[in-house]
Amino acid sequence: MNKKTVKDIDLKGKRVFMRVDFNVPMADGKVTDDKRIRAALPTIKYCLEQGASLLLASHLGRPKGSPDPQFSLKPAAEVLASLLGIPVKMAPDCVGPEVEAMAKALQPGEVIMLENTRFHPGEEKNDPALAKQMAALADIYVNDAFGSAHRAHASTEGIAHFLPAVAGFLMEQELEYLGKAVANPEHPYIAILGGAKISDKILVVETLLSKCDKLIIGGGMANTFLAAKGFNMQDSLVEEASIETAKSIMAKSGDKLILPVDAVIADRFDAEANTQIVDVDKIPAGWRMLDVGPKTIELYKQALNGAKLIVWNGPVGVFEIPKFAEGTFALARMLADSSAVTVIGGGDSASAVKKAGVAKQMTHVSTGGGASLEFLEGRELPGVAALMDK
After folding, report:
1. Which pTM value belongs to this model?
2. Does 323 qualify as catalytic in the annotation?
3. What integer is the mean pLDDT of 33-54?
């Protein structure tokens, strides 16, 4: 990683504007999963130990560019205060005269949580005037929000043009592990792609095929590939518009691509549906594929045997429903038992390894779904590009 981090800059007596990813799930005004808040703790604690004071900024949900109490970051600030064991002051906004006064009065070791950056329409438009106002609050900018690094917003990219800008530890870790998959992967390198749509992942499929030794395809994406092979997928989710793309990918991929050979099928999309296991060329009319079958799981096992690097993005079945979770959970257990470097690309795959109880056995679980996908496509993320080079 060629970007400067908090360790490359003097923080003593400095006010730090730190972009975190506190876009956490909420219910009834309470945080229901504090994983993202905990993920930012090492950088927060380091800055405070170095004698800095902190202004923390994040977005939460999708307010329509104006204040909306249900998207307030106050509950996140309360969770952070209990994790740090010190008070965290809640600001009424992320810019403006009142916030400026609070920032000026901030002492080393103190923390302010700024209000949701998306309460301003200028945030998502990357408005330089808003970015400048944010920058005026501090001396240094730290970006530790990998999950938002693929968006060029005022608090993720714009502000970095007005302050010395460095990466936090979480950002550094994400770039290091995902960078291994992009820049100089160890071989054998096996990539696993799941999820519903092939159209969202065409670029990443093509990039991975050029770098990996085997590419396992599962989930709804696999249906489109199987349809492109000429199988009748009946009521399974198939992206008709992507069939030609799937054909051309298969034509170029040689024997790298591993597709399901059998499936857990259901007579409807429902937890109470009737199910059976059939080969993928024998799906009866009115039935749909919702998970991979035992022969396919065995195929995955053989492919992963001896791997040095495994990158996984997207479940291989509808794992939210227990009847269709076995393929995804079996895969999670295989990765947990593997001696390979295992990198989980955020989003649904992160919740799958957590649900399977093996998240702690992975080398790295990414905090950013969309960001990790764009990174694996080989794209430069605006929030990363804006940071100072070493």
Report:
1. 0.88
2. no
3. 96
